[in-house]
Amino acid sequence: MNRTEFVIATAIILFVAFCLGWFANWLLHRFTSVSKSDVGELERMSQELHEAEETRDQAITYLQQREAELTNQLAQTEAELNAAMEGLRDARHEAEELRAYVERVQQSAS
Asked: Which residues contact 9 (CB under 8 A, 6 or more apart)?
């Protein structure tokens, strides 16, 4: 093989390698390219996801506020119940004292 044949063979090998590389790049681009409709669909989905997250955050905030209100209302109701029970306990004690006093007065009058 002389020098001219070697240069021609090398050129052919390099040209074939270039063609294979270009073809592989074309195939890769063809299979991995995203169409405009897919991009539009992804944009719509991301917008819907963002709106859903905002709605979720608003719902969580509302539930936390509502829970705080109900907890406060429950604490007030329990305080009122304790006050009413204490008043009832005092009224019963006073009624017992009055009964005892009335019985003592009736016994001393008899």
From this structure: 1
Domain with 3, as residue range(s), is 1-33
In a domain, 1, yes or no: yes
Inside any domain, residue 74: no
Is residue 103 one of the residues assigned to a domain? no
Per-residue pLDDT of the chain (110 residues; tens, 9 = 90+): 799 999 999 999 999 999 999 999 999 988 887 777 778 888 999 999 999 999 999 999 999 999 999 999 999 999 999 999 999 999 999 999 999 999 998 988 87
